[in-house]
Design goal:
Elements: E1 3-7, H1 16-29, E2 34-38, H2 44-48, H3 58-62, H4 68-71, E3 73-75, E4 78-81, H5 87-94, H6 103-111, E5 117-121, H7 128-136, E6 139-144, H8 150-167, E7 173-179, H9 187-198, H10 215-222, H11 227-230, H12 235-251
Helix pairs in contact: 1-12, 6-7
This protein binds adenosine-5'-diphosphate and magnesium ion (MG).
Magnesium ion is lined by residues 16-17, 40, 44, 121.
Length: 252
């Protein structure tokens, strides 16, 4: 049965999409069966995967207008449920649906036996779609930059995830906080990491792996490739491989 992981942060530009794509690619290179889910109407994951964002996708699946096999795309060993710009309209429709928070879980439960990992790319907000991802997931990862005010966002995510855990998904757990775009040489980023590791709410919840700043990670997505296709020897390829190893160690 798939381990479903939500990659969540209500801020934009914190490396969610990059992490979903390249952690997914790294796990699939370790012979894991991986399904990626694009829950963001900006469709960045869908575009990076090389899939047209005008087709049917997660929105149609969630409201029952399409089946899984109508929407799933494959690229080598990786599979994707794409998003389209119409997802915004479907999110609006969902807001009147009884049990709207369970729509994604319902769909993923049907296919979870075919995958080892399902990794969900969230939009930069904590609305219905992000809540759906937390209800469907067993774990969530919060990618963030080591910068000022990082904590404030974290508090909001933890508040929402605590409510989801209490009311809808008792198994939900924080897999870890992942520092991305890191320049490990700067004193400032070291200070942010240190203060977070000292915080009792997050002690033991920082991944040992950091994703360093790497232009290959930016370029590969724009060229519709994973970092393993675009620059297999890059720092980015190395770091996401380390993250995949760390995750396999925790979750087998
Ligand atoms: N480790 C990294 N080094 C350099 N650029 C990165 C790194 N991770 C992400 N980026 C770039 O930062 C921008 C935001 O990342 P993205 O994954 O799209 O964030 P989000 O999905 O949270 O909005 C993108 O242009 C992406 O290519
Ligand atoms: Mg994104």
């Amino acid at each position: 049965m798939a381990n479903i992981i939500s990659i969540i942060n209500n801020k934009g530009g914190t490396g969610k999409t990059t992490t979903v794509l390249n952690l997914g690619a790294a796990l699939s290179r370790k012979r894991k069966r991986v399904l990626l889910v694009d829950l963001d109407s900006q469709c960045n994951l869908t575009s990076a995967f090389g899939v047209d964002s005008n087709g049917v996708g997660i929105g149609e699946l969630l409201i029952g207008k399409a089946d899984f096999l109508d929407v799933v795309k494959r690229n080598g060993k990786l599979s994707l449920i794409p998003a389209s710009e119409k997802l915004i309209d479907y999110e609006f429709q969902l807001s009147n649906e009884p049990g709207r928070e369970y729509m994604l879980r319902e769909q993923l439960e049907r296919v979870a036996h075919n995958y080892d990992y399902i990794i969900i790319d969230c939009p930069p907000s904590l609305g219905t779609l992000s809540t759906n991802s937390l209800v469907a997931a067993k774990h969530f990862i919060v990618p963030m930059q080591a910068e000022n005010f990082a904590f404030i966002g974290l508090d909001r995510i933890m508040l929402i995830s605590d409510k989801v855990k209490k009311r809808m998904n008792p198994d939900l757990a924080l897999a870890g906080i992942l520092f991305v775009k890191l320049d490990p040489r700067t004193k400032f980023s070291q200070a942010v990491i240190h203060s977070l590791s000292e915080n009792q709410n997050f002690a033991g919840k920082l991944f040992n792996t950091y994703i360093r700043q790497d232009i290959s990670l930016m370029e590969s997505g724009a060229f519709k490739q994973t970092v393993y296709e675009y620059a297999p020897k890059s720092r980015g390829a190395h770091d996401y491989n380390d993250l995949a190893k760390e995750i396999l160690k925790i979750y087998g």
